[in-house]
Amino acid sequence: MTTGHRRRVQGTRAPAPTETQGDMTDDFTELPDDAQDTAAAGDAPRRTAVVAEDESLIRMDIVETLTEAGFDVIAAVGDGESAIEKTRELRPDVVILDVKMPQTDGVTAAEKIGEENLAPVVMLTAFSQSELVERARDAGAMAYVVKPFTPADLLPAVEIAISRHQQIVQLESEIADLGERFETRKRVDRAKGLLQTNMGLSEPESFRWIQKTSMDRRLTMREVADAVVDQLGGQGKD
After folding, report:
1. Across-strand partners of 77?
2. How far apart are CA 53 and CA 96, in angstroms?
3. In what order do the strands lie in the sheet with 94-98?
């Protein structure tokens, strides 16, 4: 885990706060309630989608369905390789992939997209075979739809895929945050031990010193702990 640039505690100055100049209230014109609601709805960002389907008529139907549901289809392609490239480039909110496509099939494309955690994937297949569904799931597909399908089949699958992907991203973020907090605690404990050994402070005094220095210098406690280890010449490794 990277620790970033370490800043020294001694002589570090807290930056002076920037003051906001002037009064902006005179420039604000309040809209009527109904106009405010309309403006808010118009400003809401439309979710984006990439569609990959080698049959042009089906591809057009999918684009139309998603557009009518409020999505911006930012790319519509006919092969898996193009789907991967467009997903990397555009980072859509969802990707719709047909299983059987030229060059790179949908399952392989889903694997690439899933490995890079680019977007949730909905798979389209003409076969309701359990083996194919399992391959698609293992490839990272969040949902699948069997052809022929209607908007009532496709749109719920799209919403499920987006929701599942958001849950996974949130969980991964929470896990990363827990790891970061554990690493910070480990470094603070190391710094407390050095302060007790070298400065004669008690354990509570060491913690309060790190905490106060963090607030006074506008540094994180981890940055203060790293600086303590650097300056007091701690032995060994974290």
Report:
1. 52
2. 8
3. 72-77, 48-52, 94-98, 121-125, 141-146
Q: State the pTM of this model.
A: 0.59
**Would you tell me how many other CB atoms lie within 10 Å of the CB of residue 92?**
22
Q: Identify the three-state secondary structure at position 74.
A: strand
Q: Are 168 and 202 in contact (CB under 8 A)?
A: no
Q: Which residues contact 112 (CB under 8 A, 6 or more apart)?
A: 84
Q: What is the pLDDT of residues 90-104, one digit of tens each?
A: 999 999 999 888 888
pLDDT tens-digit readout, 217-236: 888 888 888 898 888 865 44
Q: Are 218 and 14 in contact (CB under 8 A)?
A: yes
Q: Are 12 and 219 in contact (CB under 8 A)?
A: yes
Three-class SS state of 205: helix
Distance CA 109, CA 103 (A): 10
Is 108:80 a contact under the CB 8 Å cutoff?
yes
187 close to 226: Cβ distance less than 8 angstroms:
yes
The per-residue pLDDT for range 90-149, each reduced to its tens digit, is: 999 999 999 888 888 888 999 999 888 899 999 998 766 667 777 777 777 888 898 889
- DSSP for residue 75: E
The continuous run of DSSP H or E covering 102 comes out as none
How many angstroms separate the most distant Cα atoms in the chain? Answer: 78
Q: Crossing angle of helices 203-217/221-231, nearest 10°?
A: 110
Task: Report all structural domains of the chain as residue ranges with CATH numbers, in order of start.
Answer: 45-149 (3.40.50.2300), 176-231 (1.10.10.10)
d(CA 225, CA 238): 11
